[in-house]
Write a structure and sequence with these properties.
It is a single chain. The chain has a single domain (46-192), classed as Alpha-Beta Complex (Sulfite Oxidase, Chain A, domain 2), CATH 3.90.420. The protein contains two helices and 14 strands; from the N terminus they run E-E-E-E-E-E-H-E-E-H-E-E-E-E-E-E. By secondary structure, it is mainly β. Mean pLDDT is 92; it is low at 1-11. Strands 2, 3, 7, 8, 11, 12 and 13 form a seven-stranded mixed sheet that branches. It comes from Actinacidiphila glaucinigra. This is DMSO/TMAO reductase YedYZ, molybdopterin-dependent catalytic subunit.
Length: 199
């Protein structure tokens, strides 16, 4: 059962913003998770990309901080129907992390500290669409929002942007993650209201 912070209220969308179907705008940043919040020290954090043949590419916190960072401003859309516009992040593009990874895989299974997983087509992590984010709104990313680092894939529902990310497994065939295995949609496009299997 997800943990939801109380006390946030939706409002009508501000001028110039388009809401996906069934969504409302919030000005807070609701905290949701499927379990307790992991607390990972920077010195203990690592991120790995494992290819379909078992080859591992690894970055510790120092290596991640040494890579070129980007500062995307993106809209977020949660499957629980809230949307938050103009969120500001800092992180490393998956294009950078996957640049030297040789793979013929078409899918990715993302793994988090705490055991959470989610699946995506590999193409949705490329071409400037996804980041390993480590700052939010100018500050270090708080643990309740996935710190020290989370996946950020803003064009899909937010459950695809795995908090407390620790690795990506590249796969030749799709494999459902945590929420997908209990009925959430495999893809999760908010503009097509792909909340649950069959949507």
């Amino acid at each position: 059962m997800p943990i939801i912070s109380r006390g946030f209220h939706g409002r009508r969308p501000t001028s110039g913003h388009n809401l996906p179907p069934g969504q409302y705008e919030t000005f807070d940043f609701p905290v949701m998770s499927a379990g307790p919040t992991p607390r990972i020290a920077h010195e203990d954090w690592e991120f790995t990309v494992t290819t379909e043949d078992g080859t591992r590419h690894r970055w510790g916190w120092t290596e991640l901080m040494g890579l070129p960072a980007e500062t995307p401003t993106v809209d977020l859309h949660c499957v629980t129907k809230w949307s938050k516009f103009g969120t500001r992040w800092r992180g490393v593009s998956l294009d950078t992390l996957l640049a030297d990874v040789e793979t013929a895989a078409e899918y990715a299974l993302v793994h988090s500290y705490g055991g959470y997983t989610t699946n995506l087509p590999l193409e949705d992590l490329l071409d400037g669409q996804a980041w390993i984010a480590h700052e939010y709104d100018g500050d270090e990313l708080a643990p309740e929002h996935g710190g020290p680092a989370r996946l950020l894939v803003p064009h899909l529902y937010l459950w695809k942007s795995a908090k407390w990310v620790r690795g990506i497994q590249l796969l030749p065939e799709d494999e459902p993650g945590f929420w997908e295995s209990v009925g959430y949609h495999d893809y999760g496009d908010p503009w097509r209201e792909q909340r649950y299997q069959g949507d």
